[in-house]
Design a protein that fits this description.
Blueprint: H1 2-19, E1 22-35, H2 39-56, E2 61-70, H3 79-87, E3 92-95, E4 101-103, E5 105-114, H4 118-141, E6 145-161, E7 164-180, H5 191-205, H6 209-217, H7 230-234, H8 236-249, E8 256-265, H9 269-284, H10 297-315, H11 321-373
Antiparallel strand pairs: 1-6, 1-8, 2-5, 3-4, 6-7
Helix pairs in contact: 2-4, 2-5, 2-8, 4-5, 4-8, 9-10
Amino acid sequence: MEEEVELLEENTSSDLFLNNINAILSVKKDYEKKEYDYEWIDMIDETLPYLDNILRNPKRFIINEEEVVQVEKSKKVTVESIIHLTQHTNYIQKIEDNGDVKPSKILNINKEESLDTYENRFVYTLINNTRTFFEQRKAVTGDFSYFKDKKELKYEANTQIGTEEVELSLNISSRNEAKLETEKKDSNESVADRLKRIKIQLDGFTGTELMQTLSRLHVAPVRSPIRKTNVILKNPNFQKAEALWNYIQMYEEKNVNEKEHKDYYDESNLKTEYNKAFLELYLANKVLDYEAKPLTEKKLLQQMINRMIENILDSNSEMTEKTIKELFEQQLKLIKEANEEKKKKIKKLLLEKLETEQNNYIKDWSILEETRLC
């Protein structure tokens, strides 16, 4: 009968404790996720060998520079020079008796190779555009994707039971930062390593003959749409180059950029759970109250179980007594099995330690005995 009265008083105190709570639960959340699409690295990386092939063997064409010069300055008389002279007889100075013609001037033709073709200007423009695109994307994405998740929670509460005043202040903060996996599946290179390698290759392209020559000529850049010449249509290197051109021209950013900031006072079930936790802490700390009647182990355990069952029913009011009993029995069985396993491991370790010590003792004794006999 006495235990029932005490239990009733304890439950009444718990209700008073919860009813008198004044609590504030402030929450701050900062979340940021930057998940970059590095498909553009793959596209550039795959095209670099084809651009390298073009730059190593650029297409050239012959330019004929025609100029009428004094005959003594002519370096070479060609068929074109003779035809031109027959069309411009005024350049004939004299015709010898034997039929030899002595011109005063003659057409001089200088033949030179040129890199200034449409296909080469296309490659020249593509490499310049790729370098610009590369630097822009690198500035946006950096060397890796990442996320940051920071939470700060502050719980302050006070309550009163009779003349006893109870206060609690709790601060919890967590921070989680990590790089997201962005490495190519079939490669051990990191994004940073790939970016560095690609930049070296692109910078190297600018020093090639084709790029240097067209840069000195200040050729006009090629613009879309690309002219479908035979070389661009049929040459595999130029086909890959055109694919990169189209990719850069039509590029759409696919980055994931999530950001969330919250700073608020929580009034949800979370606050209710913290109030209950406050009560649990208070009940557990009652054992420190030397003036109060000490709580027996049985009563303290009973209070904790009562609160646990109340929490279960608060979260699911339809849970039956049978279900709760089955859950307790199941967990109790699992915990006992785990404890037995721990005992076996500890026993095994102790026996191994004892055996080692015993062997060391026998060994030391044997050495000592051998020394004595000597």
